[in-house]
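Dear colleagues,

As part of the handover before I leave the project, I'm documenting each prediction I ran so the next person doesn't have to rerun anything. This entry is a single chain, and its sequence is reproduced below.
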Amino acid sequence: MHWLLFVAALAVGVAAVGHAITGERDTLKIVAAGSPGAIDHVRTAWHLLTVLLMATAVVLAGLGHHGHDAGASLAGTHIAGGLGLGGLFVTWRTRGRNPTGFLLVVACLAAWLGATAH
């Protein structure tokens, strides 16, 4: 399809790895201190998002590797929309202090441009 889909996949993959590392290092440590009984549930939910981000990166890379058709283009634009909304939400909620929001917005733009390129 288009090389920009690989850029989007890379940005999402970096966001996923950063999410996992900083979550364990910073966020989950605070949750564990405040609510030791809930940490297993919170950790599971936290890392489920990491797995879903990596799955999204794999799908984007797959779309970039295979030929262009209407279904792949539609899937790429829908994924781009979700990444964009997620990126804007993270950027808004963290007041721009979390680089994951910016990575997701970059991934959104790259995915959308790559999916709609002919």
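Residues 3-116 form one domain. The longest helix spans residues 3-34.

All the best with the project,
I.
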